[in-house]
Amino acid sequence: MKATGIVVEHNPFHNGHFYHIKESRNKTAADIIIAVMSGNFLQRGEPALVDKWSRSEMALKAGVDIVIELPYVFATAQASDFARGSIALLEAIGCDAFCFGSEEGTIEPFTNTYEAITTQQQTYQNLIKQYMKLGLSYPKALNEAFAEITKDSNLHLVDLSKPNNILGYHYVEAAYQMNACMKPFTIQRIVANFHDDVDESQSIASATGIRKAIFEEGSIGELAKFMPKTSLDHLLTWKDSVGVFGSWPQFWPLLRFTIIRSSLKELASYAEVTEGIEHLIYDAATKSETFEEFMTRVKSKRYTWTRIQRMLTHIYTGFTWEALKSHQNPTYLRVLGMTNDGQSYLNQKKKSLSLPLVSRVAATKDSLLDLDIRATDLYQLGLQSSKIERPIGLDYRKTPIII
Questions:
Q1: Looking at the structure, do residues 93 and 204 belong to the same domain, yes or no?
Q2: What angle do CA 348, 354, 359 make, to 5 degrees?
Q3: Which residues are annotated as a binding site?
Q4: Which of 301, 325, 349 is the endpoint of a domain?
Q5: Are residues 296 and 340 in the same domain?
Q6: Which residue range is the domain that position 203 belongs to?
Q7: Tens digits of per-residue pLDDT, 81-118?
Q8: Tell me, what DSSP letter sits at residue 370?
Q9: How many whole angstroms from its chain centre is CA 206?
Q10: Residue 197: what pLDDT?
Q11: Model confidence over 275-316: pLDDT tens digits?
Q12: How many angstroms from the chain centroid is the CA of residue 85?
């Protein structure tokens, strides 16, 4: 069985994701689609709208055959580490190809860009440091450095100012660096850009636009044209059974408590907290009644909204620099769900997988997995919903979903 891997968050699953799955299957002639999916905290440093099991089931009902969890360490990391963890898992589970959505739409510019950067790696890294010293954020410094080293190139290179192109480049980079057997593919991202609001004249909207509509307008039913019915049903069920959706404004009371009860030394020990910003974070938390007010006080040209949110995620979950440095590579394949075809694939491949397969958490001892379990518990507590029974220990009670 030929397998193609995709890297997803599905926050929430919408028609654009459905298109990605269908086109990935067609473009790579895949029998099986395997999704590496972030858990309950995401790459932009925020809680997921709904939990990882709900999002897994949405994917399985819309064309994915196996969902494996991207561990917290990589799911909440900067783009290069997020990509490295994702590609390592897809390689370990035996994918023949991986396919990502991009603004570019063709793979050659990505491979050309990797070659261009690799041949001038030291110059590239030095330029990034120089631009950051001038006060630029990391993404802007990266883009400026890239423009500098490629200004005389005649190759067709990828535009690294686009968010999906950036992630796509890092997927290709990770695959080459680990000598992966998988072949890279990309498909054109269509209609909605990454941050676009919902456009009622279209049938595809960005996940960002859909979340914004849910939080600002509150009516999920009006989003029916932008997602498969199975996804809409899951959101409606979640609203009825849980009552609230995951977001930093929802989590703010617990996050604020965590910040204020911590010493400055403790805040500085958490991953991605650098350059004395713990002073600003603490001061802003004492003065801000809402999450939006807090972010207004903290955000600057040097620190992007996403980077600050990743710091806050690590503060909230207690994830330290020491823990980050201790976990450089994935150590297991955690199955969240599968179809019957996915189950057949795993039965065929289980003896050749390069990482152990985890279906029962209680039977596995792994410090990387322990971080995922803690993140799940804190996510459930952050929802602060009286409708949730026994929020602690869900990872031990949940078995893989089978569709």
A1: yes
A2: 65
A3: 7-20, 101, 164, 189-190
A4: 325
A5: no
A6: 3-103+187-245+330-402
A7: 999 999 999 999 999 999 999 999 999 999 999 998 99
A8: H
A9: 15
A10: 54
A11: 899 999 999 999 999 999 999 999 887 788 999 999 999 999
A12: 11
Is the C-alpha dihedral spanning 323, 325, 328, 331 positive or negative?
negative
pLDDT of 356 > 70? The answer is yes
Tokens, residue 305: 């909204």
Cβ 217 vs Cβ 132: under 8 Å? no
Residue that is last in its domain, among 325, 350, 378: 325
Q: Is residue 24 domain-shared with residue 96, that is, in the same domain?
A: yes
Q: Which residues are annotated as a binding site for ATP?
A: 7-20, 101, 164, 189-190
Residues 92, 211, single domain; the answer is yes
Distances (CA, A) of 278 to 198, 268, 270: 36, 6, 10
Which two tokens mark 284? 């802003």
Mean pLDDT across the stretch 20-35?
Answer: 97
Is 198 a residue whose pLDDT tops 70? no
Reported pTM? 0.93
191 has a pLDDT exceeding 70? no
